[in-house]
Specification:
190 residues; four-stranded antiparallel sheet; 1 helix; 11 strands; 28% helix
């Protein structure tokens, strides 16, 4: 009389099939977690590039021909480049929703701080140091600024009038994850 049940070989084959399915499921789960992580990184990178472009375009479009004074009363040009920063400018349109006692003009400084592109805004146009730092993008290996003075593209800004603004700026950023980002923007009401 034969008894109902599985032989040892049938059990081993069943365990082997179960093990293969479990390892395939684990590999699939690990792959989907990795894909999700990469998708988040790409979305974060795209968001940072979009934010960079929006702030850069807004600052340049709102550029104002207004010199500013430092804490010691020295006059500085409305636009400066190569003074330790990529460029510094005075811009219009600084929102004042809280009704703080300040001007609607703001001085902003764009600088490369190590491998980070940083934008700093001064709390007051005159007399205060730039603070309020915002890291816009990381992984920048090099940054190059060219300035259009109405005659052509230049590597330096050498205006004698402190109220003068360039016609346009070109900012090129390079980095391993960035590739090459090139922004060409008109300045002020140009």
């Amino acid at each position: 009389m034969r008894q109902a049940g599985f032989t040892l070989i049938e059990l081993m084959v069943g365990l082997l099939i179960f093990g293969l399915m479990a390892s395939a499921g684990t590999a699939l789960l690990a792959g989907s977690v990795e894909a999700g992580s990469q998708a988040r990184q790409l979305a974060d990178g795209t968001g940072a590039r979009t934010r960079l472009q929006a702030l850069l375009a807004a600052d340049c479009a709102q550029a104002a021909p207004r010199p500013w004074r430092d804490g010691e009363g020295r006059v500085h040009a409305a636009f400066a480049a190569g003074d330790g920063s990529l460029f510094t400018l005075v811009r219009r349109g600084w929102s004042n929703a809280g009704g703080a006692p300040r001007a609607s003009l703001q001085r902003v400084e764009w600088r490369l701080d190590g491998a980070r592109l940083v934008r700093r805004g001064a709390a007051m146009l005159d007399g205060s140091d730039a603070g309020n730092e915002a890291v816009l993008i990381e992984g920048v290996r090099s940054a190059r600024l060219r300035i259009h003075d109405g005659q052509g593209w230049r590597e330096r800004w050498e205006a004698t009038d402190p109220m003068a603004l360039p016609r346009a700026v070109e900012l090129t950023l390079e980095g391993p994850q960035l590739g090459t980002l090139r922004h060409v923007l008109l300045m002020g009401p140009a």
